[in-house]
Design a protein that fits this description.
With 295 residues, this protein is an alpha/beta fold. The protein has a single domain (7-224), classed as TIM Barrel. Helix content is 45%, strand content 13%. An 8-stranded parallel β-barrel has the order 1-2-3-4-5-6-7-8, surrounded by 6 helices. The longest helix has 18 residues, at 227-244. The protein is globular. The chain starts with 6 loop residues before the first strand and ends in a 6-residue tail after the last helix.
């Protein structure tokens, strides 16, 4: 299927307290996304630290986000390395009002290319929701090859692929093979511009936690064909993006949101506070971009 998502979907952080979820902070974060023109938010994706959350916490965050995102699409991360568990999570997301789900490839136990086809076939077959495949081999050890994605794209409710392989030659071949069947989404902020320029329909962005309006502007500029302006904005964004990935996501972006005054709370182990030199680099990049840092 095509046309499920267009524009900007922010891969949202989850603000924690020492004892659970900070819903006051989450409300402020979601409100800012909506006011800045984001088209969707992704809840319980990698940036939201779902692997450290209990099922009751996930349910509460999804239900809360559904109430706070009227007029925006709500996408929930439900993929995993146990197909039955991923199916159950997808069904639960549907019950809680999700508009679609983001399903990462199986990790650790991994699978073959045929296994990927079987995994997404089973997941899509268990729900009427649009499903987005998530290709991030640096984290999972599994790479959805273009020919494989071409087969997965034939599944009726496969909405697209979030591409974060970092290999533009592969992304271009995937785009060629799935065009008209399902959509291509950028899953790597540093490659948002080139992926949009080869037909990407949306960006699923981490840096849009910090600057949602500007990431939305980048998408709009490309759509209008104003490439000189899009290139200039991308050039300005790249140092900030680079600083946001100086350590494993979401450590830097969560610190960045704290520096903007959004009270993001603690990171959950095994994630640790940002190294001092990288934190200074992030602060410098934020200030250079023109953000008001509360350091």
């Amino acid at each position: 299927m095509t046309g499920f998502l267009k524009g900007v979907a922010t891969a949202l952080i989850t603000p924690f307290t020492e004892n659970g979820i900070d819903f006051d902070a989450l409300s402020r974060i979601l409100r800012r996304q909506k006011e800045s023109g984001a088209d969707a938010v992704v809840i319980c994706g990698t940036t939201g630290e779902p692997s450290t959350m209990t099922q009751s916490e996930k349910d509460a965050v999804i239900a809360f986000a559904r109430k706070e995102t009227v007029g925006m699409k709500l996408i929930v991360g439900t993929g995993g390395n146990n197909t039955a568990t991923a199916i159950a999570a997808t069904k639960r997301a549907a019950e809680l009002g999700a508009d679609g789900v983001l399903a990462v490839t199986p990790y650790y136990n991994k699978c073959t290319q045929n296994g990927l086809i079987a995994y997404y076939t089973a997941l899509c077959g268990a729900t009427d929701l649009p499903v987005i495949a998530y290709n991030v081999p640096a984290r999972t050890g599994v790479n959805i090859l273009p020919a494989t994605m071409a087969k997965i794209a034939e599944i009726p409710n496969m909405a697209g692929i979030k591409e974060a392989s970092g290999n533009m030659a592969q992304v271009m071949e995937t785009a060629r093979l799935i065009r008209g069947k399902c959509d291509l989404y950028s899953g790597e902020d540093a490659l948002n511009l080139p992926i949009l320029c080869i037909g990407g329909r949306a960006v699923i962005s981490v840096v849009s936690n910090l600057v949602p309006a500007d990431v939305k502007k980048l998408v709009d500029l490309v759509e209008r064909g104003e490439l000189s302006e899009a290139i200039a904005l991308s050039d300005a964004l790249l140092p900030l993006i680079d600083a946001c990935f100086s350590e494993v996501n979401p450590i830097p972006v969560k610190e960045g949101m704290r520096l903007l005054g959004f009270g993001t709370g603690t990171l959950r182990p095994p994630l640790t506070p940002m190294e001092p030199q990288n934190r200074e680099r992030l602060i410098a990049a934020m200030r250079a971009y023109g953000l008001e840092v509360r350091a």
